[in-house]
Design brief:
Elements: H1 2-9, H2 12-23, H3 35-48, E1 52-57, E2 71-78, E3 85-91, E4 110-111, E5 114-116, H4 120-140, E6 147-153, H5 164-169, E7 180-183, E8 191-196, E9 198-207, H6 222-242, E10 259-267, E11 284-293, H7 299-316, E12 322-330, E13 333-334, H8 340-353, E14 358-362, H9 368-373, E15 380-382, E16 397-399, H10 400-419
Parallel strand pairs: 3-6, 3-7, 7-15, 8-14
Antiparallel strand pairs: 1-2, 2-6, 4-5, 5-16, 8-13, 9-11, 9-12, 10-11
Helix pairs in contact: 1-4, 1-10, 2-4, 4-10, 6-7, 8-10
Length: 431
């Protein structure tokens, strides 16, 4: 292993340069800018290294269009002899920049041992570290067996349907083609992430009746009805959720409870009004909610808690009416700690850092949800460089030392899985 870790240390400048190159392509989602250019950057590099490269457009997926094609890249390299397949997956899309930056968000600048820019932490730095890890492994240990795959996929920030979800449904990121999956999300270099909480997004619309704003008693204000919904959430739902806890090792600690976030509220006159307002009683108000739930809960319970409140208001409140639209849902996932990929990555963390790895669960979902549900592949975890709290923040960065550490861990874990040093348990769960 010394030769492997030395080879990665010698590639430190390459890790930084690849991170910068990826960050300098502004793959902002929404709408899905520059996906093809970023996929091609990865594909061209890996093809030069002997990988078979495919560009896979997820036609028909949400957001896909000729202007914004959902272009994924999938690269595969076969070893000297048959064996298991280890797959490294990273998403190439990033969230919008937002306000508050003091550096160029797409400059990839290096300051004080850190690479700055949107996506450095979440998760182009992790993808770069995985590429360098694989290249160092192939160069240092040419007799490896099995197969190594690397994918750069789209739309993780908006559900992943055009990325990992599409590849998994097509059987490309699924059993029996793939045996082990490592997703280099930013969970800190001493942590192995074995799952995530569940999520249910829904849109609630309260209904009213228009009237002149000087005579609101002739109409029915939908925003007031939504206020009643929020009041009932505060009184009945939020305290109930705060009392629930989980056996899942979710980080940070506050996320070990059930949570509900109000993502948006829209009602009345249109946003961005730059003229004088009209005197109108609003007849529509929409609220988007984001319910994160625990493995001890189920979706029917989550949904019923909301509809019970809405139905009780309909019975109690004059002229109250509503519509409910379910937007998206993903159940919780939890990988068995005894599965090979968990043990391989945890052992590599211990070898590189000299301390035990912490097994954690993410507060939010990531693309493991598709690998498990559509790919029927439970041997999947997240491990990568970067500090989770920096994701989606202004002045996002990843430490260069963490990039190198994560590359070492991923290379050592892949070697252990390919060589059979980490065997599958006799009674492994899952299909």
């Amino acid at each position: 292993m010394d030769a492997l870790t030395s080879a990665i240390e010698a590639r430190t400048e390459e890790i930084v340069a690849l991170t910068q190159a990826l960050v300098r392509i502004p793959t902002i989602n929404p709408p899905g800018d520059a996906y093809t250019a970023c996929a091609e950057l990865l594909g061209q590099r890996l093809r030069r290294r002997g990988f078979t490269v495919q560009y896979i457009r997820a036609e028909g997926s949400p957001g896909d269009s000729p202007r914004y094609p959902r272009t994924n890249v999938l690269a595969r390299l076969e070893g000297r002899r048959p064996g298991p397949c280890v797959h490294f997956n990273g998403h190439i899309d990033v969230v919008p920049v937002g306000e508050g930056w003091t550096v160029d968000p797409f400059g990839g600048g290096v300051h004080d041992g850190k690479v700055y820019g949107r996506g450095t932490c979440d998760m182009k730095g992790g993808l770069a570290a995985a590429v360098i890890a694989v290249e160092a492994l192939v160069d240092s240990m040419p007799d490896w067996c099995g197969a190594i795959e690397i994918s750069g996929t789209v739309d993780e920030e908006s559900g992943g349907y055009g990325g990992v979800g599409y590849l998994a449904r097509q059987g490309l990121l699924a059993r029996p083609r793939v045996d082990h999956v490592i997703i280099p999300e930013p969970l800190n270099v001493d942590r192995v992430c074995i799952g995530h909480r569940g999520v249910w997004w829904a849109e609630i619309e309260t209904l009213g009746r228009t009237a002149h704003g000087s005579m609101p008693f002739l109409g029915d204000c939908a925003i007031r009805h939504m206020g009643a919904v929020l009041t009932r959430f505060e009184r009945d739902l939020f305290p109930r959720l705060a009392e629930r806890s989980t056996r899942m090792p979710v980080v940070p600690q506050g996320a070990q409870r059930s949570t509900l976030n109000i993502d948006a509220v829209h009602g009345g006159l249109p946003d961005g009004l730059d003229g004088l307002p009209s005197a109108m009683v609003p007849d529509r108000c929409r609220m988007l909610i984001e319910r994160r739930y625990l493995i001890e809960e189920n979706l029917d319970q989550v949904r019923t808690e909301i509809t019970d409140i809405l139905d009780s208001l309909k019975a109690e409140r004059s002229r109250f009416d509503y519509r409910l639209r379910e937007v998206m849902e993903f159940p919780p996932t939890l990988t068995d700690p005894d599965l090979p990929v968990v043990r391989a990555v945890a052992a590599a963390v211990h070898d590189v850092l000299g301390r035990p790895a912490e097994l954690v669960v993410s507060p939010g979902t990531y693309d493991q949800k598709h690998v498990v549900r559509f790919g029927h592949l439970n041997d999947c975890i997240a491990y990568g460089p970067g500090i989770l709290d920096l994701a989606h923040q202004p002045d996002e960065y990843v430490a260069i030392n963490d990039l190198v550490t994560a590359a070492k861990v991923m290379a050592m874990a892949a070697h252990a899985l390919l060589s059979g040093a980490i065997a599958r348990p006799l009674a492994a769960p899952g299909p």
